[in-house]
Amino acid sequence: MKSLFHIANKINEMLTEYELGNLQELRKNIHSLSRVPSRYVFDQRGVKKDWGAHFGGRAELQFNIGFENNSFRYGVAFSLRPSRDHPNLNALIEKINLFNEYFNEFGTEFYDLSMWHYDVEHDGSRSEDFQPTIIKSEWCKTNAFIFLGEKQNRERIDYQRKYHQTKSLFIYGRILEAVFP
Questions:
Q1: Cα torsion through 60, 49, 116, 142, rounded to 10
Q2: CA distance linking residue 56 with residue 83, whole number of Å
Q3: What pTM was computed for the model?
Q4: Nearest in space to 146 (alpha carbons), one of 88, 71, 69, 61
Q5: Could you write out the DSSP letters of every residue in 96-143?
Q6: Which of 32-41, 65-74, 169-178 has the lowest mean pLDDT?
Q7: Are 114 and 132 in contact (CB under 8 A)?
Q8: First and final CA of the chain: distance in angstroms?
Q9: Residue 164: pLDDT over 50
Q10: Residue 169: its pLDDT value, please?
Q11: Residue 148 in 3-state DSSP?
């Protein structure tokens, strides 16, 4: 079984063929950073054993990958877990509102994706997968995690199917443009 870091590196290689491969350059320009934060969408700082997010994704819509049981998931997510660098979640709530505006206008583009969230208000359990929808305010609690994307069998990841033959990257790029300031 391949590690998530190996999979992230493969995705990084494939993204060089897409505008999304320049995500860190885009983030540098949007956030007026003095340098590009990383050469890659996913680097060792953002990839853990079972999940990964693009470097810098804690305070914005993040490109997210991970293992869930026998599946490999990939898509975009909002992580509402406060951190030392990002203790206030208000900026993320603003980005969620922008995401919802985008979804209201272009929601039909998401018909082939799935959505889920962690229910932090009750027992912290993961919801079932459901059809994408706007992000409801009751999901936007401290430590919540909201995901939109796709899954494949983690033993047989078909990179070609998902990164060359679908519109997912295009949609994710459009979402990214919509939620960055």
A1: -50
A2: 12
A3: 0.83
A4: 61
A5: HHHHHHHHHHHGGGGTT-EEEEEETTTT-EEPPPB---PPPGGG-STT
A6: 169-178
A7: yes
A8: 39
A9: no
A10: 52
A11: strand
